[in-house]
Amino acid sequence: MSVNSARRIDFELIADLVCDGARVLDIGCGDGALLQLLEERRHVDGRGIEISQAGVNACVARGLSVIQGDADHDLIYYPDRCFDYVILSQTIQATSNPKHVLKELLRIGRHAIVSFPNFGYWRVRLGLLFGGRMPVTKDLPHSWYDTPNIHFCTCTDFAALAQELGARVEEAQVLDAEGERMGVPLPRPLWNLFGQQAIFLLSSDAPVASENAAS
Q1: DSSP letter at 72?
Q2: CB 34 within 8 A of CB 66
Q3: Is 6 helix (H, G, I), strand (E, B) or coil?
Q4: CA 89, 93, 99: angle at the middle one, nearest 5?
Q5: Whose CA is closest to 37, among 3, 55, 62?
Q6: What is the pLDDT along the chain (215 residues), one digit of tens a residue?
Q7: Contacts of 112 (CB under 8 A, 6+ apart)
Q8: What's the CATH number for 5-203?
Q9: For residues 44 and 60, what is the distance between their CA atoms, to the nearest angstrom?
């Protein structure tokens, strides 16, 4: 995913969901912009995982505690409830096994914050309907053959997966085409049509066992 102004607003809204002084793990933290914002604004005890060496280097240059790792394979090494918040920003659609990754987020953190581009957005639907081709937009900037996104989903898809895993949706919001919070409150059935991005704050009442935990 490209980094743009919408991502910056996305980061601001995520920061609003995090309590001061919390223990935070930012998965797929990129160049560390969100983690740095959380440390400066919320004074969190922050850690990060980033798959690219360039991203890790950028984070270390910011003075952040970040290691190289892969969300699909490395989350199993974290113990249950070791963080207050586990954040996955604009990344779940690029993972090989989103269900496994979300389950691990709910196991590791007391809360999980997930943001993603909504593939049910009306412009995307129209592009497929009238253009007959996979859409290219500001939030989905890659062509189908070179996109890092391998599991597109809609707000409805994600909410259904969260329910399947027994997660509670504590808060959810959608952003418009400009990357701003929706100016007019919409009923949730319309989020899937008019929200270009979505942010979900989830929690789970009971620890979720890791699928790959050692016996």
Answers
A1: H
A2: no
A3: helix
A4: 100
A5: 62
A6: 333 434 477 899 999 999 999 999 999 999 999 999 999 999 999 999 999 999 999 999 999 999 999 999 999 999 999 999 999 998 998 899 999 999 999 999 999 999 998 887 656 666 666 666 566 666 666 655 565 567 788 888 999 999 999 999 999 988 876 666 766 566 666 777 667 889 999 998 755 555 554 43
A7: 85, 86, 87, 88, 102, 105, 106, 167, 200, 201, 202, 203
A8: 3.40.50.150
A9: 17
Element (H, E) at 88: strand 83-89
For residue 68, the SS3 value is strand
Measure the CA–CA gap between 53 and 204, rounded to whole angstroms.
32
Name every residue whose Cβ is closer than 8 Å to that of residue 196 and which is 6 or more positions away in sequence: 6, 117, 118, 121, 123, 137, 139, 174, 175, 176, 177, 179
The answer to whether 59 and 28 have CB atoms below 8 angstroms apart is no
pTM of the model: 0.83
Residues 6+ apart with CB under 8 A from 103: 165, 208, 210, 211
- Give me the residue spans of the domains in the chain: 5-203
